[in-house]
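Contributing new records

If you add data, match the layout below exactly. Sequence lines come first and carry their own label; structure lines follow with theirs. Keep one chain per record. Anything else will be rejected by the validation script.
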Amino acid sequence: MRDILADPHDAAIVRAVLDIGRSLDLAVVAEGIETPAQQASLVAMGCRCGQGYLYGRAVGADEIARRLTRAETRQAEPASRRPASPDGPAGPADRRAPPLPSGRPESAKPTG
């Protein structure tokens, strides 16, 4: 993932894996997305799902449980009582990049 912007061979491998996944009707998850440029490149290649430090650092199970509880509590509150937070529902550690577009490109959809 790291060198797809600089190494055409790495980019070709990523494109091939995405093509194989599409031809087998499998979801492919790109791992190790660290920059918006990597994300943009993957989206241009047709990748629709990814994970990596661009979206957040790894956290332990206890932290995940705490964030989910906080998010559920916020969802249960009436909207008028929720404080506006630019950090997202789980707090400052919840730095989210724009999501990858959902769905497959029209050219990749089965025709029959």
